[in-house]
Design brief:
With about 130 residues, the chain is of the alpha+beta class. It is built from two helices and four strands, in the order αββββα. The protein has helices spanning about 10-60, 125-134, and strands at about 70-75, 80-95, 95-110, 115-125. It has a four-stranded antiparallel beta sheet.
């Protein structure tokens, strides 16, 4: 008498169990990929906002002391979705010089949340006084 031949392939229940195990493993992986992408986009936007704030400060650094004025909620040229504000505290007198504390705040949207990056510098009228004395 010969042994009954074992069928080749998988049974339906084995396939269903395999698909369930695969689903249980893959769902968290897709979540990790989605969160990783979100963090990558957030880092890119934050870095861009930082560069934009730095460029505004560089422009202000090259302006004469008296020409530096506050700016209210302006869109950054060539960068839709990024807005900036320039806040000025001062001038105040420090050791015979006038000092302005300048803060540039760049805001951008990340999902439904508005995020901000800010940079601050101080500008004095020291160079202008030195030029007048020459």
């Amino acid at each position: 008498m010969s042994k009954p031949k074992k069928p080749d392939g998988f049974t339906f229940i084995e396939v269903i169990i395999g698909v369930l195990i695969l689903g249980i493993v893959l769902v968290p992986l897709f979540d990790i990929f989605a969160k990783s992408n979100w963090h990558s986009v957030d880092a890119e936007k934050s870095t861009t906002a930082l560069y934009l704030a730095q460029s505004v400060l560089e422009e202000l650094k090259n302006k004469p002391f008296d020409d530096i004025k506050p700016v209210s909620d302006r869109e950054y040229d060539g960068r839709p979705g990024y807005r900036y504000t320039v806040k000025i505290n001062g001038p105040e007198d420090v050791n015979g010089y006038q000092v302005k504390h300048i803060t540039v705040v760049v805001s951008y949207m990340m999902g439904n949340v508005t995020k901000q990056v800010s940079l601050t510098m101080e500008k004095t009228n020291r160079d202008e006084i030195a030029e007048q004395q020459m």
